[in-house]
Design a protein that fits this description.
Largest sheet: 5 strands, antiparallel
Number of domains: 1
Helix content: under 10%
Strand order of the largest sheet: 1-2-5-6-9
Strand content: over 45%
Oligomer: single chain
C-alpha cells in the first residue's frame, strides 16, 4: 500500500487529501474447517484526513479512504473505511 497525501496546516490543525494505491491486495478467511484466500487487482483510492496537533510532536486525527477492489470472477468489493490515527513524531537530533 502506498499513500500519497498533500496536507495544509493551519494553527493546530492539518487537512490533507491524496491517493492510496494498493498493490496485489488479498483477502483471507479461516476457521477450523475452512480456509480461503482471494486475490484482487491493483486498486487506486482517495484519502481525506484531518489531524489535530495537541503537542508539537503528537497528533490525533481521522482519515477516510474510498477504494474499490475488483476481481475478474466477481463483482466489485467496497473497501471504504474510516480510521482513528494517533501519531507521535520522533526527532533524531
Amino acid at each position: 500500500m502506498l499513500n500519497l497525501p498533500i496536507a495544509y496546516r493551519f494553527n493546530d490543525w492539518r487537512l490533507g487529501v491524496g491517493v492510496s494505491y494498493h498493490y496485489k491486495p488479498t483477502l483471507s478467511a479461516q476457521s477450523d474447517d475452512y480456509s480461503e484466500e482471494w486475490q484482487f487487482d491493483n486498486s487506486l483510492g482517495s484519502i481525506i484526513k484531518l489531524d489535530y496537533f495537541y503537542d508539537d510532536d503528537a497528533t490525533i486525527g481521522l482519515q477516510h479512504m474510498q477504494i474499490d477492489y475488483t476481481r475478474s470472477e466477481t463483482k466489485t468489493v467496497n473497501g471504504d473505511n474510516i480510521a482513528l490515527i494517533w501519531r507521535i513524531l520522533f526527532s533524531l537530533n
